[in-house]
Design brief:
By secondary structure, the protein is of the alpha/beta class. The chain folds into 2 domains: about 210 residues, Spore Coat Polysaccharide Biosynthesis Protein SpsA, Chain A, CATH 3.90.550.10; about 90 residues, no CATH class. Helices cover about 45% and strands about 20% of the residues. A hairpin with a 5-residue loop joins β6 and β7. The radius of gyration is 20 Å and the shape is globular.
Length: about 300
C-alpha cells in the first residue's frame, strides 16, 4: 500500500549508525504515513541483525533487501528508491538521522505544497561523531527558487544540498532519470542539476535532520584531482546559465569545496593531507578562477600553512 513518504536507507557496514537512523524514524509514531526501505550493501549480516532488532515489533510498513552481489554506492541509492511506493522520497544515509518531530513538519509541508512543488529542501544540522552541532545550515524563510536561480545557488555553494534535507516526488525519477553511476562521488550534484533545471526547489526554514561529518564518510575521499575534473565536466553540461554566470559559480564553488577539504584535514590534524588538498588550486583547469573576496584570507592562510608543510 502506498504511503505519503518513503524513507530510503542505503546501508553499508555501519550497523550502529543504522540503528540510530532507524530509531530516529520509528520514535516519531507516524506509522500510517510512512514506509521504510533499507537496501543493504554490507559485507556481513550485522545491519540485517539491526533491522530485525529495531523493526521486528514496529507496526509500520518496511522492506529490507540484502544486495547480492553488492551494487555499489550509486546503484544502492537507486535500488532503494525503485523499491519505494511513497508519493515523496527522502534518502537517509545510514550515518545520518532525523530530528524529533521532523516527520510531522515534512508531512505537513507535503500536504500543503504537493500540488505546487516537486522538490523540497529543508534545513540541516551538520554534526560530528558525538552529535555535537558544528553548524546549522538553514533558510530565513520559505522561498521558491525557480530553475535558473536554483541552479545559481546550487552551483555557487558546494554544500547547498545535504542529502537528508532534500525530498522529492517519486515520479520525478521517471521524468529525469535516476542517479548516474558514471559520475562517481559527485553523482548527487549532477542529479540536483537535473532536478533544479526542471522543477526549481522550495527552500524551507525548518531544520529536519542531522548530517554527520566523520572519518568514515565517503565524502572524506573526494578532495582529489579526479573529483575536481569530474565536477568540471558536470559544470560543462549546464546550458541554462550564461558563460559569465557559470564562471562566477565555478569560482565560488571550487574555492568553497577545496577550502572545506583543507579545513577537514586541519581539524583532524592531517597536515600533509591539507597541503595536498591546497595543491588542487594549481591544477591548470582552475588557474583562471578568481578568488571570491570572502575566501581570500582563508585561502592565503591555508596556502602559507601548505608551503610550510611541503
Amino acid at each position: 500500500m502506498s504511503k505519503k513518504l518513503s524513507i530510503c536507507i542505503p546501508a553499508y557496514n555501519r550497523p550502529q549508525w543504522l540503528k540510530r537512523a532507524l530509531k530516529s524514524i520509528i520514535t516519531q509514531d507516524l506509522i500510517g504515513e510512512i514506509e521504510i526501505i533499507v537496501t543493504d550493501d554490507s559485507s556481513n549480516n550485522q545491519c540485517h541483525q539491526v533491522i530485525n532488532e529495531v523493526l521486528e515489533n514496529w507496526l509500520g510498513q518496511w522492506h529490507y533487501v540484502a544486495n547480492q552481489p553488492r551494487l555499489g554506492m550509486t546503484e544502492n541509492w537507486n535500488h532503494s528508491i525503485k523499491l519505494s511506493l511513497g508519493e515523496y522520497v527522502l534518502v537517509l544515509h545510514d550515518d545520518d538521522f532525523l530530528l524529533a518531530n521532523s516527520l510531522n513538519v515534512i508531512l505537513e509541508t507535503i500536504e500543503q505544497y504537493q500540488n505546487e512543488y516537486s522538490v523540497f529542501l529543508f534545513g540541516v544540522n551538520v554534526v560530528d561523531e558525538q552529535e555535537r552541532v558544528l553548524k546549522q545550515q538553514t533558510f530565513k524563510d520559505s522561498q521558491y527558487l525557480p530553475p535558473k536561480q536554483a541552479l545559481i545557488r546550487l552551483l555557487s555553494n558546494s554544500s547547498f544540498v545535504r542529502f537528508p534535507a532534500i525530498i522529492f516526488q517519486r515520479q520525478v525519477f521517471q521524468e529525469v532519470g535516476y542517479f548516474n553511476p558514471v559520475w562517481g562521488e559527485p553523482t548527487d550534484l549532477e542529479m540536483w542539476i537535473r532536478l533544479f533545471s526542471r522543477y526549481g526547489v522550495l527552500c524551507l526554514p525548518d531544520v529536519t535532520c542531522a548530517y554527520t561529518v566523520h572519518s568514515q564518510a565517503l565524502t572524506m575521499s573526494v578532495f582529489n584531482e579526479k573529483t575536481i575534473r569530474t565536477l568540471l565536466k558536470i559544470f560543462a553540461q549546464v546550458d541554462v546559465l550564461s558563460k559569465d554566470e557559470l564562471e562566477d559559480c565555478k569560482a565560488t564553488f571550487f574555492h568553497q569545496f577545496i577550502l572545506a577539504g583543507a579545513f577537514r584535514k586541519l581539524r583532524r590534524r592531517q597536515l600533509q593531507e591539507l597541503a595536498q588538498v591546497m595543491q588542487l588550486f594549481n591544477l591548470p583547469e582552475l588557474q583562471g578562477l578568481k578568488c571570491p573576496p570572502k575566501w581570500i584570507l582563508l585561502r592565503w592562510g591555508f596556502e602559507v600553512l601548505g608551503k610550510i608543510l611541503r
